[in-house]
Every structure is written in structure tokens, then in C-alpha cells.
Sequence to fold (660 residues):
Amino acid sequence: MSSQRMRPPTGHRRGRLAALIALAMVATGAAACGGSDSGSGGDSKTLVVAGWGGSFTAANKEFFYDQFTKDTGIKVTIATPGGGFAAKVAAQRAGNNIEWDLLEAPGGDTSKLVLDGNLEKFPQSLIDTITPLVADGAIRPSASEPYYLDHGGTVNLIGCNTKLVKKCPTKPSEFFDVKNFPGTRGITANNPIFTSLFALEGDGVDPKQFFPVDVNRAMNALKKIKPNVQVWSTSPAQMQQAVVDGEVGIMQAPNTVLVSAKKQVPDLKLFWDGGLLFDEGWCVPKGAKNKTAAFEFVKWYAQHREAQAKFTEKIYSGTGGRDMQKYLSPDVLENLPINKTGVTLVDGKAGAKQQQELGKELREILVG
Amino acid sequence: MLRMRRPTRARGWQSTFSGLTGLGLIAPFLVVAGVFILYPFVELLRTAFGEPDGFGNFSDFFHSPAARRTLWTTCLTSLIVTVIVVSVGAVLAWSLRATKSRLTRMAIALAVFVPLWMGAVMKIYVFTVLFERFGVVNRTLTWLGVIDEPMHLLRTQFAVVAGMVYQMLPYAVLPLYAVYVTIDMNLIQAAESMGASRTRALRDVVAPLALPGLLASTVIVYVICIGYYLTPVLLGGATAPFTASLIADDIFNLFEPAQAAVASVLLLVVAGLVILGGLRLVGKERMRRAIG
Fold:
């Protein structure tokens, strides 16, 4: 009968065991929530780069990131927030969690990041190494404030699909003249400075009079054209898709987007008159987890001018290398945004001061 | 005869746990709820009523026509989507319940479950392909001679509604099906044997029994809808945002956390009111049963 001998019930013991397991789980959970984040990065073997996305980031990957990984063993992860870098970094800093190590950011954002104190200063050893390799003034905004390295520039210019539009606007004032230049339009709206200055140009403001931005005038111009704008793109990739799919016939978009789209849309014509050039820069957000790897990348970039030349040939964006004319053909040099007539280099620092105000007003126009 | 030893009191089985054991068992839930629900909620309220204007943050929100329009668009679009989804879902769920054909049942089940298995971006991309200027819909309508020029479908409120309806359908069909299976099909036959038409039998017999389920589904669908982000961004574009995209814009483009928190609180209030309204209409117990 031994097999039928009943053992005293152990419910209470099981209850205690369950309680112990539960407490252990709580302790583990608490440790995971409040413990150190040593496992979340900082090993300098990874590098998280935030960029525009679209053809610009694709070209960066092709000519820089992939080779950098091969050369150094540092794995590059790409994030594509599409714009608004300054506010996004500010939000990450406020949340005490910097997700990105390196930014491929435009002038307006880099200036705002410098203004807000949200960038890491380049170490002196890095400056000493790269100075002979980069163009004069490429370490920006100034020698005393070495916060970002020039990575060429992007021009927001007018494109027109001649297959869809009979009469193409060739400059901003014609772009805003919907009566004489009919057609579905697309405007880049991921940076309020880009959009506002383009509106001012469309309203006849001379680029020398851009700053301080006449907010009312810019917004009124946008309000007037709004019914004729089918796409207000919030990322370069979105505009590229709209151009390639024929969703818009007339568009204001970055040259990188239009040059890339032209391969699929041969009837696309580009008009540089009134183009707005914003410099792009490599910068490191303050508190980046892998800032050593980020600075390592900046050094690697400066040391690889052949790669910079190939990048330029691909998307005509330009780079910060010294004596790049030695590496580029005359044809490519002639077609660089900076060398195009009618293109204005925008003062990113002046724009950064009004970025917040312009962002709010632009939203009121788009949504209100 | 087997003699049972009487368990000692200390080791005896008890149907209830001691206070300490109970506390230990509930502790993981308390920690999770505290860390992931209570703490963020308190932080949210603190931010919404904090810098820069305290209560004034709310008047700042309503002072902005863009914010007002976005909140209104969110509530209205969600309502339209909910009405469509629950109406279509009710019919689909009933068909699933009533059909005797395995093929029909499988077809409906696939139509309902496939959207659940697909990733959100994939589902939205399908609608981009359908609605773009030279997409499937415009090409078909042009080919049929219904339209001369391609219609503007993408980046419109219509596209947002269509995308949301497709994604939300399973959330209406599944709870409704769960309610329908509890309805005895013999009741319909009984009603018909008493002279009622099929429509009248459904209206007078099935509908009252299914009402709590219908209302519960309405509440679930609406509350999920008002939080939508990706679909309005990708199919509606910059001019047709939802409150969630306004919140993202406030945090990631304008860096105005207080305004983002205000918008979040308002969304919570709307969701809370809808849930309370649902509970009041259906009753707590029936609502709980309907949700399962």
C-alpha cells in the first residue's frame, strides 16, 4: 500500500515558492528598469548614424559606411528620421537617452544644435589630423567652435516632369504662379526654413533680404499656393516616390532627390535658378554613446577623398575634402550645386534662430 | 480501507493564500503597472500642467487652429471608420457564424485574419499602390471610361479612412463573432416558424442579443482608432494629421513636450469618455462578457 500512502498536501509550501519566484522576478524586473545601461552600447564597435534617408543616405552608405565598416570593424546602423534633427536630439537629451552617434544633418539643424549646446566639440587630436585634408573653413561653424565637418550641400530646386506639364516654371516666382503655370505641385516641408525661404522667393523677396524672415509674408504665399499643392513631403524619400509615380508634375525638392528620380523619369527637367543651398555636416550629438566611433568615422571620411569624389559623382552633392578638383572631372565640378548660377547659400545660423517660430507657423498653414 | 492521515494545520491545503503570498504573487503586476502605466501617466499630467504655462498649456493648445482641427479630424475620422468597420464587421461575423459552406467560411476567415498577419507598413504600402495617381484604382477607372483624368486619392482623408477600415476590420469581426456564437440559431428558426421573415428574425431576435457585443466592438474600435499614427502620416500626408502625429511633431520637430502632453491627455479623456459611455449604455457585466 505504500504507493497509495498519501503525502501531506504541500499547497502552502508551493505558495511560498510561488511568492519567492514572484519576488525574484520583481527584483530582476526592477534591476532591468532601474539598473545601469552598460549593455546598451558604448562599445565603440557600433555607430548609429541618423540621416535624411532617400538617395543621400543611400549614397553615404555606398561610398562611406560600408567601406568604413570593412576598414575598422565598426558596424554602422542607419536611422532615417528624415529631418528635424535639432528637435529630435533635444528630445533625446531631455529623455536622457541619446540614440544616435553621428548625424548627417543640414545647415539649419547643425546651427540650431550648436546654438542649443547639443553637439560634442571635435577633439583637438581630430582637428589636427583632418585640417590638412579638408577644405579651409570646412570645420564649422568656425575654428573656435569646431562642431561639424562640411559634407557638401543640398540644393532645394525646382523640378518639372515635361511629360505631365506643358509649361514648366523655371524659377520660384513662376512656381508660385499657378495661373500661368498650371500643374500638380509638390513642396518639401520637412524643414520650415527651406519652405519659408522658398515661399519668400516665390513672393519676390531678394535672397539678400531673407533674414530675419518675414513670417507673415512667407506664410501668406504658402497659404495662397496650398490648394495647388498635392504633396507636402516630410522626407526626401516621400518626394522621390511622388515624383517617380507621377503624383506631382512640378516640384521643389533637394537636388539629390531629383537627380536620383531623373534616372526613372527621363522627362524630368531641373531648374537651378532660385535654388537654396544648405550645407550638410557630420556632427556628434552631445552624450552620444559611441562618440569615439563617431569621431573615428569623421577622421576616416576626411582621409578618403577618392570615396568623396565617387559620392559626388553619384549625387552631385559635394563634400568637405580639400582640393577636390583634383579628384573630380570638370563636368562634375561644373554641375556641383555650389557652382550653379542662381543658387543662394543660406545662412543656417540666421535660420536656426527662427526655426521654432517658422515650424509652428508652417504647421498652422498645412493643417489649420 | 484506506486511512487518511489528517494534515497538520501548518501544512494543510488552503483555498486562499496568505496575505504575504498574495502580495508576492501580485507584485510583478504592481511593478509593471507602476513602471509602465502609473509613472508615465503621472509624468504626462505633470508635463501637461507644468512648464511653461501650467493650466494655460491647455488654452495654448485650443488657441491653435491646427491643433483644434487635428483633434476634430481625429475624432470624426475615427467615428466614420468605427461606423463602417462595425457595420461591415457585423455582417462578416454573422456570415462567418451562419454559413454552412466551408469555402465561404474559409474565405471570410482569411479576409479577416490576413490583415492581422501583415505588417502595418506593408498594409499601408498596398494602399499607396492602389491609390497613387497612376495606380490600380485610377488606371482601372480610366480604362473603364468612368473618369478622364486620374483622381487625387492618395494623401486624402478618403485614403486614411480606407486604410484604417482595412486594418481595423479584424478588431470588430473577432469580438462580434465571439458574441454571435453564443446565440442559439434555433431562435431564428423559431421566429421564422412563428411567421417572421428572415430580416425580421435577425432584427427582433438576433440584434437585441448581439447589441452588447456590437457596442463593445464599437468602443474597442473607436478607442484604437483615435490613437492611429502611421496610417494618417503615410496615407493622409502633412495636411491630414491625426493627434498622434501632432504629438510626434510637438516632440520631435518643435520640441514642445508640454503641448505634446496636453494632446495626449485630451486623447486619454476622449478615450475615457467613450469607454464610460459604452459602460453606461451596455452595463459593466454585459460589456465584460461581450469583450470576453
